[in-house]
Amino acid sequence: MKFKGRIFLFVGVILLAVGVIVYFAIASKIETDGGTRNLPPWGKALLLYGVSGLLAGLGLIFMVAGFKANARAKEMEKLYHHILQTGVSAEGSVTFVDKNYSIRVNKVPIYSIVEYTYKDRSGKQHTSRIDTFSSEQVIRKQIQVGGTIQIKYATENPAQSIVVL
How far apart, in Å, are the Cα atoms of 82 and each of 120, 134, 159, 160? Predict the structure, then answer.
């Protein structure tokens, strides 16, 4: 998740920079009147602000999305660390395992979907699903439907859990 946010930030900065460069390139072209003699003033303004504004606007959108993704990743990392340190250990029962075909590298799914159920101290059953579980770990740990996995859940919110491998 953190990596995705960084990519969005990088793309946003590049688009913003390209927008600024395009603005100045078009402005200098209009100033020297190289190929814009036949354009009316509103056409020159549209060319100047439209193209560069679109690129810069897209850059800002990507940057905002990148900042949000980074903030969410930090929040999730903090939550996982908190559960790992203060959470209650439990045993989860695996109810679903399959490859996640929506994310592929060289046409090979690198993540698996793992769904499991567990009971908290009060006996209430919870279900969790991880869409980005490492396929390599699924194979190594022989995670399969009907098997068990070690988890930890948050004491203050037992519905939040992490797998402990």
Answer: 17, 22, 14, 11
